[in-house]
C-alpha cells in the first residue's frame, strides 16, 4: 500500500470512529417542573457516573450531550426536592416532575417516652447526629456537644485523660444543689460517668431544653435532658464495619517560666529590695544568697527546663468493629470497641474496652420485644497526679542528674523541692481506678388495638470500681514531708434499676384531628456502698496497695451507704388540628425518698403550643418559605439536688478525755430539717423554627426566661448555736437568654463541589434574685443579689506604686514596686471593704460553627467554638507568681527602679507572696478555638466493589490546632478554657490523627 492509500485508509477510519461516536452520543433536552407545573430554575442535571452536567434555565429547560444514550441515566437534584434518576433509553426529549422533599418535616425526633415528627414538636429540642459526633475525636459524649447546639455550654475541667467536662443547659440555676443535666440512654435514666459509653455506639443525641420538653422527666429533668440513642439494627444483609484511628498527642505549649539567667536575676532583685545584695561585689553576694548547688549551676550556665523533662509525646488510639443487619422481624447490632488515651505526662492515661449489643424482635404483628446491653471496663491512671505543678516550682539553675547520670533527690538542697522525675521511677507512684459497668435496657411492647400500645421498660444498671494509690518513700509528695510509703484503697458498687409502664394512644379523626396520649408509672431506685482504707509504712514497696494489712499504721478507715428512690406518675396529651395548630399538656408527679414525710411529693405541669404557619393558605403557595412554625411553652420543673438523708441530720465521732483516758463520743454534725422540699424552676420559652428556599436555609430562634425558687442552700446561723448553718429552702435565681441555630446549604452539586455550614449562637444571663434572710450579699460564698450566680469578688489592681507617687492622705505608706489596688469607697485606706465584683466567668455569648466542604470523593470539615466575654482566674498567676526567690516564677515584667512598669510588683525576699497577690490573677476569658479539622477521601465505588467491599474511607484530622485568646497570646497562658479557675494541671494538647473506615 503506497503512502496515499495509507492516508486515505486512516482518514476513512477516523471518519468511521467519528460517526460511531456520534451514533453513541446524543443530545437530550427537556423541562423540569414542580408539582404545580411551574418551571424549576437551577436544577442540576447530570449523567450518573460521568462528568457531564448542566442546570435548567429560567424556563426550567435543559440541554445536555449524553454519551451512550441507550444506557445512560440522568440524575436530577435540587434543594428541597427528592433526587430523581431517569434512564435515557435512547430518548432525545425527557421532561419530569420533581417531588418536594418532605423528609425535613417528616424527620423523626426522639422525645421523652417516644418519638414525634419534627413538624409536630412543640418544645425546644436540638439534635446532634452521629456524623457530628464523629467529626471530632472525643473520649465521651459530652465533649461531642461542645459548640454543636445553642444553649448547651460544655467546658473542659482539665486535659487529663479520662476527665469529663462540665455541661450546663441554659445556665446555672441552683447555688448549692446539682446543675448537671439528666442523661437518658435508650429510654432509661443514666447516672454516673459517661466515659462508660463509647461515643462510637451513639446514633444520635437530642437535647431537651424548655419546660415542656423536660417536664415529662419531672425532678430528674430540672437542668435539662440529654436523650442518647445507641446503634440499632436495620433491615439488610449483615454489614460489617471497622473504624480505627491513631493520633499523636502533643502539648499546646508550656507555662512561660524564667530560664536560669532570668531566675538568678529575679532572686538578686528580691534581695536588693531588702538591702541584702551588693552589686559592687556580685560574686560574694551571689554566694550569700545561693546555696552551693545553685551557685555552681549559675557558674555553669545551667538552665534546666523541668517541664520539658516531664512532658513527652502521647497518643490516642480508637478501634471499633460492628455487625449490623436483620429482617423485617428481627434486627440486631453488635459492636466491640477499644480506646486508649496516653497523656503527655507519663503517669496519666485512660483505657477502655466496651461492647454493645442490641436486638429487636417482632412476635406476630402486634408484639415487639428488645434489649440493649452496654458493657465497659476501664482503667484510669494518675487521676490525682499533678506533675506540672511539681515541675514549675523547680529552679532552672539546678540539674536533675549528677555526673553519673543518677537522679539527685534534692537538686537545690531544699526539702520543699525534691526532684519531680523521681515519680517516674518504677514503683514510686502507682494510681489506678478500674471500673466495670453493665447498663441494660429491656422492653416489651404490645399493640392492644390500633393506636393503643402498652410498653414495659426495665433498666438494670450495675457498676463497680476499685481505686488504689501507692506512694513510695521516694515519691515527690512524701519527700516534702518525709515519712514511710503510704497506700490507700477504695472500692464500691452501685446497683440501680428503673421500671417503667408506658401507655400510648394515637388516633386521627376526620383526617384533621390528631390526638396522642402518653401515660407513665415508674419506679427508680439506686443503692451504692463503698469502703476505704488508708495506711502508712508499707515496708515492702513492691506490694503497692495490694496488702494493706502488712503496713505499720492504719491512718484511716471508713465505709458508706446511700440509697434513694423516686416514684413517678406522668400524663401527656398532644392535640393537633390540620397540621397547623398543636398543643401539648404535661403533668408529672414525683415522690422522692430524699425528703421528709409530708414533703416528698412534687407536681410539675407544663403547657406548650405551636402554630405551623407554613400550612396556612397564605403561605402554602410560597416558593421561598419551606416551613415556618411559631411555638411557646410554660411550665414548672423541680430539683431534688441533695444527698440522701440530708433531712435527718448527721452525727460525727470525736475523741475526748474521760477519767484520764481517751474515749470516743458523738456530736451532732449537721442539723436536721424535716421541712426541706423541692427547688422549683418556672420556665417560659418562645421559639421560631423556619426553612427557606426549599430548605436551603433552616434554623431556630428561641427566647427563654426561667425563675428558680426555694433554693436548697445553707442558711447561716450564729456560732453560739453550735452550728454555722442549716440546709433550708431559701433564695431565688433567674436565667434569661437567646439562642439561634442556622444550617445553610451554600453550594449543592452532586458531581462536583458542595458546601454546607452550621452555626449557632447563645446568650445567657443568670442572676441571683433573693438570698437567705433577705440579705443582699453573702460575701463568704461570693453571692450577691442582682449579680450572676458566680462572680469574682476581690481587690481591683490598678497598677504598681511608682517612685514619687503621692499617697493622697492614705493611712499607710506603700513602697514603690508594690501592687496598687483601688480604694473603692474613698476612705483613704485599703481593707476588706474595698473589694468589689471584678467580673464573672459567665461569657457574654458563645457560638459554634461547622463547615463541611466536599468535592467528588474528598470531604473537608472544620469545627470551631468561641466564648466571648467573661473573666477567668488563673492559678498560675496566683500560685506561681510569688516573686519570692525560693521557687521558679512566671516569666513576667516585674517592677524595678530601672524598669518602673505597671504590670507586676517588685520581687521581695521578705514576702512569701506580694501583698494583694490574688489581684494579679484575673484575665479576659474570651477565646476562639478551631476544635478540629478533618480531611477524608473515599475510594471510588468501582474500586471498592473490585475489593469486594461496600466502602473504604481514609481520613486525617488535627484536633485543637488553634486557640486565639488574650490569655494565650497576650499573657502567655496555654488555654483559657476552664470552668471557673484555670488550675495548674495537665497542659492542654493538640493531636494529629490518622484513621480508616471500612464497610463489608
From TrEMBL:
Q: Which residues form the signal peptide?
A: 1-23
Gene3D superfamilies per record:
Carboxypeptidase-like, regulatory domain (2.60.40.1120), TonB-dependent receptor, beta-barrel domain (2.40.170.20), TonB-dependent receptor, plug domain (2.170.130.10)
Per the record, the major location class is membrane
Q: Does the keyword Transport apply?
A: yes
Keyword line? Cell outer membrane, Membrane, Signal, Transmembrane, Transmembrane beta strand, Transport
One cellular component term from this protein's GO annotations in UniProt: cell outer membrane
Q: Its membrane topology, per UniProt?
A: Multi-pass membrane protein
Ranges where the TonB-dependent receptor plug domain occurs: 117-225
Compartment(s)? Cell outer membrane
InterPro entries under this entry?
Beta-barrel_TonB_sf, CarboxyPept-like_regulatory, Plug_dom, Plug_dom_sf, TonB-dep_OMP_SusC/RagA, TonB-dep_OMP_SusC/RagA_CS, TonB-dep_rcpt-like
Q: Which family does it belong to?
A: Belongs to the TonB-dependent receptor family.
Q: What protein does this entry describe? A: TonB-linked outer membrane protein, SusC/RagA family
Instruction: Provide the species name.
Output: Chitinophaga eiseniae
The organism that produces this protein has a lineage beginning with:
Bacteria, Pseudomonadati, Bacteroidota, Chitinophagia, Chitinophagales
Amino acid at each position: 500500500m503506497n503512502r496515499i492509500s495509507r492516508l486515505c485508509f486512516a482518514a476513512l477510519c477516523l471518519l468511521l470512529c467519528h460517526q460511531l461516536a456520534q451514533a453513541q452520543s446524543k443530545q437530550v433536552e427537556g423541562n423540569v417542573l414542580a408539582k404545580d407545573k411551574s418551571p424549576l430554575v437551577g436544577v442540576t442535571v447530570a449523567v450518573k457516573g460521568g462528568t457531564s452536567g448542566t442546570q435548567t434555565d429560567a424556563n426550567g429547560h435543559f440541554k445536555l450531550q449524553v454519551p451512550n444514550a441507550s444506557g445512560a441515566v440522568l440524575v436530577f437534584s435540587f434543594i428541597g426536592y427528592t433526587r430523581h434518576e431517569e434512564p435515557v433509553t435512547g430518548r432525545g426529549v425527557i421532561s419530569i416532575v420533581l417531588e418536594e422533599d418532605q423528609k425535613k418535616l417528616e424527620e423523626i425526633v426522639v422525645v421523652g417516652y417516644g418519638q414525634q415528627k419534627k413538624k409536630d414538636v412543640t418544645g425546644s429540642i436540638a439534635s446532634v447526629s452521629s456524623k457530628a459526633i464523629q467529626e471530632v475525636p472525643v473520649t465521651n459524649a459530652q465533649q461531642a456537644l461542645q459548640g454543636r447546639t445553642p444553649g448547651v455550654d460544655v467546658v473542659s475541667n482539665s486535659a487529663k485523660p479520662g476527665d469529663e467536662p462540665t455541661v450546663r443547659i441554659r445556665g446555672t440555676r441552683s447555688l448549692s444543689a446539682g446543675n448537671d443535666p439528666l442523661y437518658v440512654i435508650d429510654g432509661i435514666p443514666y447516672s454516673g460517668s459517661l466515659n462508660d459509653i463509647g461515643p462510637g455506639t451513639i446514633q444520635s443525641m437530642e437535647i431537651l431544653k424548655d419546660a415542656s420538653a423536660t417536664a415529662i422527666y419531672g425532678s430528674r429533668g430540672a437542668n435539662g435532658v440529654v436523650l442518647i440513642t445507641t446503634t440499632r439494627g436495620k433491615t439488610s444483609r449483615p454489614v460489617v464495619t471497622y473504624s480505627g484511628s491513631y493520633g499523636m498527642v502533643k502539648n499546646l505549649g508550656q507555662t512561660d517560666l524564667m530560664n536560669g539567667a532570668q531566675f538568678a536575676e529575679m532572686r538578686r532583685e528580691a534581695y536588693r529590695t531588702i538591702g541584702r545584695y551588693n552589686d559592687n561585689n556580685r560574686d560574694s553576694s551571689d554566694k550569700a544568697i545561693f546555696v552551693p548547688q545553685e551557685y555552681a549551676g549559675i557558674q555553669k550556665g545551667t538552665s534546666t527546663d523541668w517541664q520539658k523533662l516531664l512532658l513527652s509525646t502521647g497518643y490516642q488510639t480508637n478501634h471499633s468493629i460492628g455487625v449490623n443487619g436483620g429482617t423485617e422481624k428481627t434486627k440486631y447490632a453488635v459492636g466491640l470497641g477499644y480506646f486508649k488515651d496516653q497523656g503527655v505526662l507519663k503517669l496519666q492515661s485512660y483505657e477502655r474496652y466496651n461492647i454493645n449489643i442490641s436486638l429487636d424482635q417482632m412476635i406476630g404483628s402486634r408484639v415487639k420485644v428488645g434489649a440493649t446491653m452496654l458493657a465497659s471496663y476501664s482503667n484510669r491512671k494518675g487521676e490525682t497526679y499533678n506533675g506540672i505543678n511539681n515541675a514549675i516550682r523547680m529552679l532552672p539553675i539546678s540539674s536533675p542528674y549528677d555526673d553519673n547520670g543518677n537522679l539527685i533527690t534534692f537538686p537545690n538542697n531544699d526539702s520543699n523541692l525534691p526532684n519531680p522525675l523521681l515519680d517516674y521511677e518504677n514503683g514510686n507512684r502507682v494510681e489506678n481506678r478500674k471500673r466495670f459497668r453493665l447498663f441494660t435496657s429491656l422492653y416489651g411492647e404490645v399493640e392492644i388495638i390500633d393506636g393503643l400500645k402498652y410498653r414495659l421498660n426495665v433498666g438494670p444498671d450495675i457498676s463497680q470500681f476499685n481505686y488504689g494509690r501507692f506512694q513510695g518513700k521516694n515519691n515527690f509528695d512524701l519527700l516534702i514531708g518525709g515519712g514511710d510509703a503510704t497506700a490507700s484503697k477504695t472500692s464500691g458498687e452501685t446497683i440501680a434499676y428503673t421500671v417503667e409502664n408506658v401507655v400510648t394512644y394515637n388516633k386521627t379523626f376526620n383526617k384533621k384531628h390528631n390526638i396522642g396520649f402518653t401515660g407513665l408509672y415508674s419506679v427508680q431506685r439506686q443503692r451504692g456502698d463503698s469502703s476505704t482504707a488508708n495506711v502508712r509504712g508499707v515496708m515492702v514497696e513492691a506490694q503497692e496497695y495490694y496488702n494493706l494489712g502488712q503496713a505499720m499504721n492504719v491512718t484511716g478507715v471508713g465505709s458508706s451507704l446511700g440509697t434513694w428512690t423516686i416514684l413517678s406518675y406522668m400524663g401527656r396529651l398532644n392535640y393537633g388540628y390540620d397540621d397547623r395548630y398543636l398543643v401539648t399538656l404535661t403533668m408529672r408527679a414525683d415522690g422522692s425518698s430524699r425528703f421528709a414525710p409530708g414533703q416528698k411529693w412534687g407536681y410539675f405541669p407544663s403547657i406548650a403550643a405551636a402554630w405551623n404557619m407554613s400550612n396556612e393558605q397564605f403561605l402554602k403557595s410560597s416558593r421561598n418559605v419551606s416551613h415556618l412554625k411559631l411555638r411557646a411553652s410554660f411550665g414548672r420543673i423541680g430539683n431534688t439536688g441533695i444527698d440522701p438523708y440530708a433531712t435527718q441530720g448527721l452525727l460525727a465521732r470525736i475523741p475526748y478525755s474521760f477519767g484520764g483516758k481517751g474515749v470516743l463520743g458523738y456530736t451532732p454534725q449537721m442539723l436536721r430539717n424535716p421541712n426541706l422540699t423541692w427547688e422549683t424552676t418556672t420556665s417560659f420559652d418562645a421559639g421560631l423554627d423556619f426553612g427557606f428556599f426549599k430548605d436551603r436555609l433552616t434554623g431556630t430562634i428561641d427566647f427563654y426566661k426561667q425563675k428558680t425558687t426555694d433554693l436548697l442552700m445553707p442558711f447561716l446561723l450564729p456560732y453560739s448555736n453550735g452550728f454555722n448553718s442549716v440546709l433550708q429552702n431559701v433564695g431565688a435565681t433567674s436565667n434569661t437568654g437567646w439562642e439561634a441555630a442556622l444550617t445553610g446549604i451554600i453550594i449543592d452539586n452532586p458531581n462536583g463541589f458542595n458546601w454546607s455550614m452550621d452555626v449557632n449562637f447563645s446568650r445567657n444571663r443568670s442572676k441571683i434574685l433573693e438570698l437567705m434572710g433577705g440579705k443582699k450579699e453573702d460575701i463568704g460564698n461570693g453571692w450577691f443579689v442582682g449579680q450572676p450566680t458566680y462572680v469574682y469578688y476581690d481587690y481591683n489592681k490598678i497598677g504598681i506604686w511608682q517612685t514619687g507617687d503621692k499617697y493622697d492622705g492614705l493611712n499607710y505608706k506603700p513602697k514603690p514596686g508594690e501592687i496598687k489596688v483601688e480604694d473603692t469607697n474613698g476612705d483613704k485606706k485599703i481593707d476588706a471593704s474595698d473589694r468589689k465584683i471584678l467580673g464573672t466567668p459567665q461569657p457574654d455569648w458563645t457560638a459554634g460553627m461547622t463547615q463541611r466542604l466536599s468535592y467528588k470523593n474528598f470531604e473537608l470539615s472544620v469545627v470551631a467554638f468561641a466564648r466571648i466575654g467573661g473573666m477567668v482566674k488563673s492559678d498560675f498567676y496566683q500560685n506561681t507568681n510569688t516573686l519570692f526567690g525560693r521557687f521558679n516564677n512566671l516569666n513576667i515584667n516585674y517592677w524595678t527602679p530601672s524598669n518602673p512598669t505597671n504590670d507586676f510588683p517588685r520581687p521581695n525576699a521578705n514576702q512569701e507572696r506580694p501583698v494583694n497577690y490574688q489581684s494579679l490573677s484575673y484575665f479576659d476569658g474570651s477565646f476562639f478555638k478551631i476544635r478540629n479539622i478533618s480531611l477524608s477521601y473515599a475510594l471510588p465505588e468501582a474500586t471498592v466493589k473490585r475489593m469486594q467491599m461496600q466502602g473504604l474511607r481514609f481520613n486525617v484530622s488535627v484536633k485543637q490546632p488553634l486557640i486565639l485568646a488574650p490569655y494565650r497570646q497576650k499573657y502567655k497562658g496555654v488555654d483559657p478554657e476552664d470552668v471557673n479557675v484555670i488550675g495548674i494541671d495537665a497542659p492542654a494538647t493538640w493531636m494529629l490523627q490518622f484513621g480508616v473506615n471500612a464497610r463489608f
